[in-house]
């Protein structure tokens, strides 16, 4: 009888562990691959902030050049959070624009004009012209200057004057781990 209770208790514990791990590894619904651009190489090796940040607001391309939309994605990140370059490149700009700290990186080997990532609001720890590697810290999330309702970093991508979805830079395995699967528990 005692062994039977132990097996039931262990089974419950294993199921609880499976559900917890599944919940932690499942991507938020906003992280689907829809809206990514096939012309953008998935050369990113890391998220700009955190391991799998919550996307507060996704990419919403404008219908016209000056039309309404959202020309990037907003990633939840507390002030002081390190901001990393998603791919290797050269810092094209590190300074203030309209009162906000901005860092822009031209990505290496992505054509002419190159793909350019932007991050704001960021307190830069790099200077214009510096070469950066994928995953290298380029600054920290600034305490002020965010347009989000909760602290965030705005991550953008463009080629020349054309804005693109920055999530396109990340390979599918970094965006989405696929569907969750429950395995049988053998007793």
From TrEMBL:
It comes from the Bacteria. It is an enzyme of class 3 (hydrolase). It comes from Streptomyces olindensis. Residues 69-166 form the M23ase beta-sheet core domain. Its EC number is 3.4.-.-. Keywords: Hydrolase, Signal. GO terms for molecular function: hydrolase activity. Residues 1-32 form the signal peptide. This is M23 family metallopeptidase.
